[in-house]
Amino acid sequence: MRAFVPDYEMITPRTLAEGLRMLKDEPGVWKPFAGGTDLMVLLEAGKLDHKRYLNLSHFMELRGIFADSSGSVTIGALTTYTDVLRSAVLRVEFPLLAQAARETGTIATQNRGTLGGNIVNASPAADSPPALLVYNAELELISADSSRWVSYSTFHTGYKTTILKPEEIVARIRLQRPASEWRQSYRKVGTRRAQAISKVCFAGACAMENGRVAEARIAFGSVAPVPVRCRQVESLLAGERARPSLIEDCRRKLLSEIAPIDDARSSREYRKRVAQNLLEEFLRAL
Amino acid sequence: MLREKVIGRPVPRKEGLDKVTGRAQYVDDLTFPGMIHGVTVRSEIPRGKILRIEYGPGIPWNEFIIATAADIPGKNAVSLILDDQPCLAIQVINHAEEPVVLLAHPDRYVLERARLAVRIVTEPLPAVFTIDESMSGKTTVWGEDNIFKSYHLEKGNVDAAWANADYIIEGDYETGAQEQLYIETNGVIAVANPHDGVTVWGSMQCPYYVQKALMTIFGLPAEKTRIIQTETGGGFGGKEEYPSMIAAHAALLAWKSGKPVKLIYDRAEDMAATTKRHPSRTRHRTAVTKDGKLLAMDIDFAIDGGAYATLSSVVLSRGTIHAAGPYSCPNVRIRSRAYATNHPPRGAFRGFGAPQSIFALERQMNRVSAAVGLSPEEFRRRNFLQTGDTTATGQVIREKVDLAGLLGRALEASSYQIKKEQFAAQNRGKQAVRKGIGFATFMHGAGFTGSGEQHLKSVVGVEATAGGRVRILVASTEIGQGTQTILSQIAAETLGLNYEDIEIAPPDTASVPNSGPTVASRTCMIVGKLVESASVGLKQSLIQAGLLAGGYTADAFRAACRSYIAKFGALRSFSQYEAPPGIRWDDERYQGEAYAAFSWAAYVAEVSVDMTTCEIRVDDFVALQEVGRVIHPVLAKGQIEGGVAQGIGYAICEHVVSKNGRMINNQMTNYVMPTAVDLPPIRVFFEENPYSYGPAGAKGLGELPLDGPAPAILNAVENAIGRPVNRIPLRPEDMMEILNA
Amino acid sequence: MREKVRVRLLANGKTHEVETYAMARLLDVLREDLRLTGVKEGCGEGECGACSVLINGDLVNSCLVPALQADGASITTIEGLAPNGHLDRIQTAFVEHGGAQCGICTPGMILAAVHLLQTISTPTEEQIRGGLAGNLCRCTGYASIVEAVKHASANILEPPQP
Q1: Would C15 be classed as within a structural domain?
Q2: Percent of chain B residues past pLDDT 90, beyond the cut
Q3: Is the pLDDT of residue B534 over 50?
Q4: C142 — contact with chain B (CB < 8 Å)?
Q5: With respect to CATH, is domain B280-449+588-740 assigned 3.30.365.10?
Q6: What is the pLDDT of residues B125-147, one digit of tens each?
Q7: Euclidean distance between CA atoms B319 and B315, whole angstroms
Q8: CA C26 to CA C61: how far, in whole Å?
Q9: Given CB 3.0 to 4.6 Å as the disulfide criterion, which of A286, B209, B702, C123 pairs with C127?
C-alpha cells in the first residue's frame, strides 16, 4: 500500500446538482469517483496523482437500465456490471455488452465497477468499449448547466484522453436496438480465462441480406491507444459475400487500422495476428 | 496385523478450525504495545557502486529510526551455505531491489512517503542477466568465474558409447523463473535489544535457519536468539531462506529503536525483491540402439542463481541427480553449473532443481523415442529402472519398483490410447482447436541429498503433559500441508492413543529442538519417523518404570504419564536422526545413495490448443504416484492437486518479465497464476509400497507433483501440433512464434 | 493532510463509528479499527480476493472500497459467519474436504462461496469455479474447494452443526 492516504479527500455531495456545481465552480479541482475499481488500484500502487474526489456512487438517478418504446435502451452511468448481467433486455438485445460484462473482472469487481467509470477511465484494454462501439453507443455528458449527446466513437481522443470537460460527467449511455437478424460475436483474449486483462478484444456485428453483408460493424480493444471501430474493413465488406479472398483482404486492411504494442502482458506480433484471426473467425461464420 | 486406527484416516486437521473461522493469526494480524512499522529502501540499479545516501527534504527525519549496514552489531552477512550475501549493502549493489537502508516509524503512511524520499546515489557498473552472458566471462560479477558451484558426475564410459549408437539425438531445453506467490507475503515482528537479545515472530518455514542467521548478524548465542513461527500463509520454498533477511532487518530496527517493529512486504515488493525458482538450460545428447535401448546420456545442466549463492549449490545438486531420471542407462555424464547473474538471488521453490532437469529429460525422451520410431510409452518401458538397477549416481534400487505398471495404470486412467487415436483423426486438416495427450514419468528423492540428513542430525522430542496428553516437540512448521496433523497421527498410532490426545508445541526455538528445516519433502518421512521413534522411547520409559504393561488402554497410558511426572518431574523422549543402513555418499564424485527413498510417478496431461489464439488449455490431468504410504488421504491428495496446479502455471502462464534486472510484472494483475476457471479437475491416484524407514511406510510427496506437469503438458502440446516445444513458460505468444516458424 | 471523517458501519451485526481518512481502504478500517483480522490482504490491487467481504449482501474486494463509501453499509466478514461457534455449512465442508491448506485465502474464499450459494443454491461445477474465479488459492489447486462447495450446496437443507 503505497499511497499517502491522509493527502486524499473525498466528499459526498448532498445532491447530484450540488456535485455538478462543485465541478463547474472549481474546474479540475474535483474529479468524480464512482465504483473505484480502477482508481483504488492506482491509489494502492502510489500512482493516483489526483487527490480530491466527489463521491457520486449513490446517486440512483444515474443508475438503471431503461428501455423505451422508441427503440433505444438507456443505461445510467453508475449502472454496475452486475446490473448489466441481471438485465434481460441487455442479455437479449445487446448480447455483446452482456458478454463483455461477464468477462469484466470478477464478481467482486462487477458488483462495484460501473459502466460510466469504465468509459471515463479510458483504458484501451477495457472490455465494454468494443461492444459499445459496435452498438453505435451515444453518451450523455452533463455539467451543472449543460447537456450534450456525443457519439461514443468520438469520445476517446488518445491514450487515456477523452473529450470530457473537467466540469462534465458521463450521465447516460444510449444504445439503439439493433434490427433483428444481426450476426453478433464478442471474444476477449485475456491473460487467462477469468479475471484477466485483455490482450485483444473483438466485437463484431453484421446484418446480412441475401447472403451479402448489408452492414458490418467491427471493433477492437487492446490494439491501439483507444478502442477502435474498423471502418475501412467495414467498407470492404459492405455489399459483399464473405469469400476467402475477401477475408484475406480484410485481414490485410485491418493492419492499417490497429497499432498494437509490446508490453509486459503480450507482444505486438501476437496482438496483430490474433486480431486478424478473430476477424477471420467472425467472417467465416457469416 | 492389527488395523490402524489413525494412520490412513482422514482425521480432522489440528489446524483446521481456526482457518475457516478467521481466528488463525498470521503475523500481520498481531499488534504489540508500542509497535512501530518498518520499511526497506532498495537499489534501483542491478549493479554498481554506492556513492552516498541522500535523505530528501520534507520528511521529519528525526522521528524515524534509520538503520544501515553500519548498525549491524555482528557480521553483515545472511549466513546460509556461504556468507556472501550482505544483510544490507554498503559499497556495492549486485542486484536490483538489494536492501540498503531500513526505516521505522509509527505511521505506515508517513513511512512510505519517507521511503520515496531516500535516494541511493550510485555509479552503475555493467551487469549480467543471462546464463550465456554469465558463462561468456565478459563481466565477472561473482567470485573468479561467475560460478557458484559445479558438479561433474560420471557413470560408465560415455565417450566410448557413441561408437555403438544407432542414433544420437540432441536437444536443448529451457525453463524460466517462477514466483512462489504464497498469498500471504513475507512479514515479521521483531523485539530486540543488546541486553535481552532478539526475538522474532514471523511467516516462515525454518525457524532454526533464521536463528542461525541472526546469531551471526547480531553476534548472539542461541539462548538470546529466539524465533517463533506464526501461522504461515503458504511458503513453497519461498519462505525457506528468505525470512532470515526480513527477520534481520526488523530486528535491526528493533535493536536500534527499543520498540517492537513490524515489517510486512506489500505484494509488489515481495515479488520484485524475494527469491524465485532458478531459470535453467539443459543440453541433452543421447545415444540409443535401434531397439530403443539407452546407451549413453550426456547432460549439461545450467541454472541462473542470481546475485548471491543462497541455496544454488543444493538446487544444482538436486537438479543434477534427477537429470537422468528413472531410466536404466549404463553410461551417464552430467556436468552442471550454477551461474551468478545480477538478478535478485534465486532460491528454493518446491521441486528445487528437479522440475528443471526433469522437464528437459522427459522432453528429450520423447524426442529420442520419435527418432527411434517407438511410441513414447514403449520407449519408456524398454528403459525403466527395475529393482537391482543403478541410477546415474550408481545407487542400486533396492525397493520394489514397477514403473511400467504405474505408467500403464496412468495411461488407462486417462484413456490415453483411445484419445491419442481420436485426436490424431480429429486433428487432420485445418482445425480451430487441436487436441493432444502426453505424459511424463519421473521420480523424486525425499529428504536431504546424500549425507545431508546426517549433517542435519535432526532431533525430535515427545513429552507427556501433566494432564496425560502427549505433546510433540518439533521445529517443523505447518505452512498448509498439515504438519501438525500427520505428526499427531503418527504419534497417536505409535502410542495407541486417540488422535485427540496428541498436541503439538508451537515452533519456537526456545522450546523445541531442531528437527531440521521444513523442506525437501522430509517432514513426513524423516521427521515423522523420528516422531515415531521418540514416541516409542516415551512408551519404553513408562514400561521400564513399571507404570505401563502391554495391551494398555488410552486411559492407562494417561494415568501412567501422570504418575511418572508426579514421581520424576517430567517425561520426555528425544530421538535423533540416524541414516538407514547402506546409505553411502561420495560428495566428490557424486556417487552412491543420493536419497534414502524415491517416490515414483506417471502424470498424463490432455490439452487443447486454440489455433485462433494459440492458447493452451489443460482439459484433463491424471496424477498417479507411488508414495510408500498415504498417512492422511485428504492432505496427501491436496498436496498433489496443489502441486499440479503450480506445475501447470509453471508450464503455460507464469512468466517473470525482467527489464534491466528488475521484475516489471510484479503485480498479481500481470504475473498470471491460474484461477479456478483455468484448471481442470485434477485426478489423483495413490499407490502404496511401504518403505521400511518411513513412518508407517511413508515416503515424501510434497515436491513430487512439480516435476511432472510441465513435461507432460509440453509432450501433449507437441502431440497436438506436431512440432517440438522446448521452453517453458509456453505462453500463447511463444506458441504463435512456433506455429508460424 | 485532510481531516478525518466519521464513518458508521454495521459489521457482523454490530454498529461501529470510526474516525478515519475518507480514502482509507475499507480493508484497513476493518482490520485495524475494528480488529476484524479475519479479512486478509493478499495483493493490494483487487486481484486475489483474500480481502473479500459482503457489503449489503454483495461480494466485494474491501481493498478497493474507500472508507467514505462504506458509510452506512452492512458488512459481513468471516467472523460474522459463525457467531456462536455454530459453523456455517460451508465452513464445515471446508474442514471435512481439505478446502483450507494454509488458510490465508480461506476467509475470502468462504465468503465468495456464501455469496455464490445465495445466488445459485445448487451450482454446477462450472458455476462453482466461475463463482470463485476472483479468489486465488496457491495451495489447493481449487480441487478440494470445489468439492467442499459442492458438498455444502447438497446440504442446503441441513441445519448448522452445533
Answers
A1: yes
A2: 96
A3: yes
A4: yes
A5: yes
A6: 999 999 999 999 999 999 999 99
A7: 6
A8: 9
A9: C123
pLDDT at B426 over 50: yes
Q: What is the pTM of this model?
A: 0.98
| Domain identity same for C62 and C104 | no
Q: Going by C-beta distance under 8 Å and a sequence separation of 6 or more, which residues neighbour residue A30?
A: A22, A23, A52, A53, A54
Burial of A69 (0-12, 13-18, 19+ CB in 10 A): exposed
Best residue of C23, C102, C137, C144 to probe chain B, by most B CBs closer than 10 Å: C102
Q: CB of B15 within 8 Å of any CB in chain C? A: yes
Could you tell me the pLDDT band of residue B424, with boundaries at 50, 70 and 90? very high
Task: Say if the Cβ atoms of B183 and C104 lie within 8 Å.
Answer: yes
Q: Would C132 be classed as within a structural domain? A: yes
Q: Does C101 touch chain B (CB under 8 A)?
A: yes
Q: Where are the domains of chain B?
A: 16-24+452-576, 31-125+186-264, 280-449+588-740
Q: Give the residue among A54, A105, A55 at the shortest CA–CA distance from A81.
A: A105
Q: Which domain holds residue C76?
A: 5-80
Residue B592 has pLDDT above 60, yes or no: yes
What is the pLDDT, as a whole number, of residue B468?
86
- The secondary structure of A99-152 as a DSSP string is HHHHHSS-HHHHTT-BHHHHHHHT-TT-SSHHHHHHTT-EEEEEETTEEEEEEG
Per-residue model confidence (pLDDT) at position B1: 46
| Residue C159 confidence (pLDDT) | 55
The answer to whether the B16-24+452-576 and B280-449+588-740 domains have the same CATH topology is: yes
The domains of chain A, with CATH numbers, are 8-55 (3.30.43), 60-176 (3.30.465.10), 182-284 (3.30.390.50)
Distance (Å) from the alpha carbon of A85 to chain C's nearest alpha carbon: 13
Which chain A residues are within 8 Å of B734, Cβ to Cβ?
Answer: none
Is there a domain that residue C161 lies in?
A: no
Q: Closest to B664 (Cβ–Cβ): which among A197, A264, A266?
A: A264
Q: Cis peptide leading into B729, omega within 30 of 0?
A: yes
Chains in touch with A (≥3 Cβ pairs < 8 A): B, C
Helix or strand or coil: residue B397? Answer: coil
Contact flag C69-A55 (C-beta cutoff 8 Å): yes
CATH number (domain holding residue C126) = 1.10.150.120
Query: Do C71 and C121 belong to one domain?
Result: no
pLDDT for the residue C158: 53
Residues of A in contact with C25 (CB under 8 A): 1, 5, 40, 44
pLDDT tens-digit series, residues C36-77 = 999 999 999 999 999 999 999 999 999 999 999 999 999 999
pLDDT of C160 reads 52
Contacts of B741 (CB under 8 A, 6+ apart): B723
pLDDT confidence of B583, banded at 50, 70, 90?
confident
Q: Does domain B31-125+186-264 have CATH number 3.90.1170.50?
A: yes
Q: Do B234 and C100 make contact, defined as CB atoms within 8 angstroms?
A: no
Q: Does A29 touch chain C (CB under 8 A)?
A: no
Segments of chain A with pLDDT less than 50: none
Domain B16-24+452-576 bears CATH identifier 3.30.365.10: yes
Give the chain A residue nearest B614 (alpha carbons). A274
Check residue C71 and give its pLDDT. Answer: 97
C-alpha cell of residue B539: 512408551
Which candidate, B609, B608, B618, places its Cα nearest to that of B651?
B618
Note whether C138 contacts B183, CB cutoff 8 Å: yes
Q: Which of C80, C106, C137 is the last residue of a domain?
A: C80
| Full DSSP string of A153-184 | GGTEEETTEES--TT-EEEEEEEEPPPS-EEE
Contact B674 A3 (CB under 8 A): no
Give the cell for residue A135: 452498438
Separation in Å, CA of A197 to nearest CA in chain B: 7
Is some CB atom of chain C closer than 8 A to the CB atom of B480? yes
By Cβ distance, the residue of B22, B232, B668 closest to C78 is B22
Domain count, chain C: 2
Q: State which residue of chain B sits closest to C90, comparing Cα positions.
A: B20
How many beta-carbon contacts under 8 Å exist across A and C? 94
